[in-house]
Amino acid sequence: MTTHTTTDATTYTARPIDPAVLKDLRTADDADRPMVPFADEEGGAPLRCCLRRSEPGERIALVSYAPLRRWAAEAGVDPGAYDEQGPVFIHADDCPGPDLRGHPFPGAHRTVRRYSAEARILGGRLVGNAEALDGAFDEAFAEAFADPEVALVHVRAVEYGCFLYEVRRA
């Protein structure tokens, strides 16, 4: 997990897809399709297992993942209509997980989507300004978790809406 501490000493942890979930996804994804690995010739795919971009030649796969559904099952709640499933890149084989500082996948606009303990969307925020992304994320997380109703946030790519990673209340 990637941990980042803000100036007010609050710690936010970017959570990759859990290793046990990765094991499941490598057998059958959340759309019940088998994983189809391939060599990433160009590199640059955002890997949700280790929260970094792929290197050219790495063996990866694009799988369907339902992050809120999995969190809701763990929390014992029903995600209802907010249950989304979408494509994510993962390593086709086990990897050591993240080893990063700061926020994963910087340099682009993102959305920070807030969810309640009942798995309902409570709002969101666009995070931009590539020159000051870490500060913008810190501000967005602080704003989200200042609301006691917020249990977790999803960080998503603006251009495709893809899930990138989750941050939970500390």
Short description:
About 20% of the residues lie in helices and about 35% in strands.
Segments where pLDDT lies below 50 for 5+ residues? 4-9
- What's the β-strand tally? 11
| Biggest sheet strand line-up | 1-2-11-10-8-9
How would you state the average pLDDT, rounded? 88
Helix amount, in percent? 10-25%
The share of residues in extended strands comes to 25-35%
How many strands, which pairing sense, and closed or not: the largest β-sheet? 6 strands, antiparallel
Number of helices, where a helix is a run of at least 4 consecutive DSSP H or I residues:
3
Order of helical and strand elements: EEHEEEEHEEEHEE
State the end-to-end distance: 13 Å
CA gyration radius, whole angstroms? 16 Å
Helix vs. strand class: alpha+beta
Shape: globular
What does this 3D model show about the protein?
There is one protein chain. The chain is α+β, with helices and mostly antiparallel strands. Helix content is 19%, strand content 33%. The chain has three helices and eleven strands. It has helices at residues 19-27, 67-75, 133-146; strands spanning 2-5, 11-15, 38-39, 46-47, 52-53, 59-65, 86-91, 110-116, 121-127, 150-157, 163-168. The protein has a six-stranded antiparallel beta sheet with strand order 1-2-11-10-8-9, covered by helices on one side. It has a three-stranded antiparallel beta sheet with strand order 3-6-7, with helices on one face. It has a two-stranded antiparallel ribbon with strand order 4-5. It is globular, with a radius of gyration of 16 Å. The relative contact order is 0.21.
